[in-house]
Amino acid sequence: MTLHDPLRPEAMLAASAARTGLSDFGDPAFREGLDLLLADIRALDLAEPFVQATAFRIGQFLDARAMAVDGLRRHADVLAMPIRQPLIIAGLVRSGTTALHQLLSLDPQFQGPEHWLTVAPMPRPPRGQWPSIPQYRAVSEGIAAFIASAPEMLDDHMMSAEGIEESLFILATGFASNMWPSMWPVPRYDGWYRDRDDRDSYRWLADVLRLIGKDDDRRWLLKNPTDLFSLREVLDVFPDAMIVQTHRDPVEALPSICNLILAAQRVFAGERADPEAIGRREAEMWAVALDRAEQVRSQSDNRFFDIEFSDFTRDQLGTVKRLYQHFGLTLTAGTEAVMQAWLDAHPRRAAAGPRYRPEDFGLTAKGLRQRFADYRARRGYA
User: Fold this and answer.
1) Closest by alpha carbon to 356, among 282, 285, 268, 290?
2) I want to staple 186 with a disulfide (CB 3.0 to 4.6 A). Which of 35, 40, 81, 243 is the partner?
3) What InterPro entries has UniProt attached to this entry (predicted)?
4) What are phi and psi of 55, to 5 degrees?
């Protein structure tokens, strides 16, 4: 790296300020994560195309942070807005969370953070104005370019500028997030992230949601698989949250999870993406997340609704109806028809056996059965 390395923290902050005209990034505590993340990435000695892709990606989140800080300053009244009984979807990655999230987002009683508003946080404008907003257009073009470089991400994440997005994208603007170890092999950052208390991250998430939903009092619909890892902090910030936890045998899910992470890391780190390192990291991360979530659940008065992946894939609309009944929500005939139309337009791809093997990532089925033995026994997979 040269003295003009674009991945130096001060260079990144200056570039963001030049793009947005905003130099206030809020509470400086975020610098601990940012500085450590960039130090780990710089140590990878990435080739120039990956340096540029990295600078662009992290720069997006610095821009989003500055926009959120500016918006919260100009609309400080939103900080007093309550977030009541959000419906939060959490669960092992590749356990149906994305399809469920998309399906529930069709119900107009919910609001969720649209993807482009996680990239450019502001009070949500009327839908008809979006095409005229520069930030919306820029996000649309950026997604098209990203999908062109990693087309499998479209199947796995259903990305679009106007679609509902994971809260992970807002959490990432705090630079203490599982997003970053999913995109680059950053072991020192990863250890720091996994050892920290995440309450400040979720308080930041709540404030950005308040900004986006400034003129909207509908119930929030949120989704982030990593919430399982920080469920205690989630419930401290959203104490009356209703949690939907999706489940799937980790022996089946982990190879697919690892392949998704490998695809992302290859976009930003090229040959530095190591399938076996990804396998070790993801198996450990999700074993801890599932154990933590179970401990929190056993001590919580919150309402939880469990969904088995196999049950959901067999009867998606029936599962949704049971979810609504469990939480006392109303599913109107009109919304049910819209959901059915969406399901008809997005049929589940028929499985033709496992697409990826544990061995592709330095894992074994036997080892995964042992690592997840307690969870598998609780769920009846063993």
Assistant:
1) 282
2) 40
3) P-loop_NTPase (IPR027417), Stf3_sulfotransferase (IPR052736)
4) -60, -40
